[in-house]
Write a structure and sequence with these properties.
This protein is of the alpha+beta class. The protein has a 5-stranded mixed beta sheet with strand order 1-2-3-4-5. Strands 6-7-8-9 form a 4-stranded antiparallel beta sheet. Helix 1 crosses helix 2. The longest helix is centred in the middle third of the chain and has 21 residues.
Length: 270
């Protein structure tokens, strides 16, 4: 581990330092992601994470200069694909801390995997901004290969938008607690054939819709009679609004079950 720095697991007492690290990173990386202490408290409740053994914070004195965390999938079909996220303070980059974080993740993933899916194959993946050539080189040097790219797409909701009516026989209704079971059913089936996706359990679904950012008023389901076919969920991050003075609705999920695809249901939901 990096000489002169303290490494210890993340916990609730570190959310202020953790949020400050996110802010320092955002000021340089411009990801349009503003993370508050409230957001981080929600992350610490994630049932798919083991913070005592699957997280680490790196300190230079009282300053958190890096962090890493591991998340387990809910299934190994057939490979258990664990995820790592993390970051290094811009003022401390280029000093080998990112490499040490990746090595830590590889060591920590094994025991967590064995408890859940012992005997099954294990893989580890991480994310980095496409423009970060140093991060790409870091992963490549450890034997990682690119497997997927993601794009952020946005539209201005203050302008006139093209109208998109639901298809015949489809009703769109708001998300309610009573419809939460239907929403999980739709999500699990809609994403079952999606790259890297595994089903939400009851526990992980409760956590997902329990995020402070979740907005039931901007979340909807599509039904054909009593049969749920489609789902769109909305998140709004108060920390982003506070930082930019602009409201932004984030869509983390939009999906349609097999029986409802190619009918325009997802377009109508959005």
């Amino acid at each position: 581990m990096s000489s002169g720095f303290e490494w210890r697991p993340l916990d609730i007492g570190q959310v202020r330092a953790w949020a400050a690290l996110h802010a320092a990173t955002e000021a340089v990386d411009h990801q349009e992601e503003h993370v508050s202490e409230r957001d981080l408290l929600g992350y610490l409740d994630d049932p798919d994470a083991d913070y005592p053994r699957g997280s680490v914070a790196v300190y230079d004195g009282d300053l958190m200069i890096a962090f890493g965390q591991l998340f387990s999938r809910t299934a190994a079909e057939p490979v258990h694909e664990m995820r790592m996220s993390g970051g290094v303070h811009p003022g401390y980059r280029g000093r080998g801390i990112g490499t040490e974080l990746l090595k830590w993740a590889e060591r920590a993933a094994g025991p967590l995997h064995e408890e859940r899916f012992g005997g099954q194959p294990l893989s580890l993946d991480g994310l980095y901004l496409a423009r970060h050539s140093a991060a790409a080189e870091l992963f490549s040097d450890r034997g990682y290969q690119p497997s997927r790219s993601f794009l952020r797409m946005s539209t201005d909701l203050t302008t006139d938008l093209a109208e998109c009516r639901p298809p015949d026989g489809i009703d769109i209704v708001g998300f309610t607690a009573e419809r939460s079971h239907d929403a999980r059913l739709v999500h699990n089936e809609a994403f079952r054939d999606h790259w890297g996706s595994t089903d939400f359990t009851d526990e992980s679904w409760r956590h997902f819709i329990g995020y402070e950012a979740f907005r039931p008023a901007y979340s909807f389901l599509a039904y054909a009679g009593a049969v749920p076919l489609g789902l769109v969920l909305g998140h709004e991050y108060d920390s982003h609004t506070e930082a930019t003075s602009q409201r932004e609705l984030h869509i983390p999920t939009v999906g349609t079950r097999q029986a409802g695809r190619r009918r325009g249901i997802a377009s109508a939901l959005v």
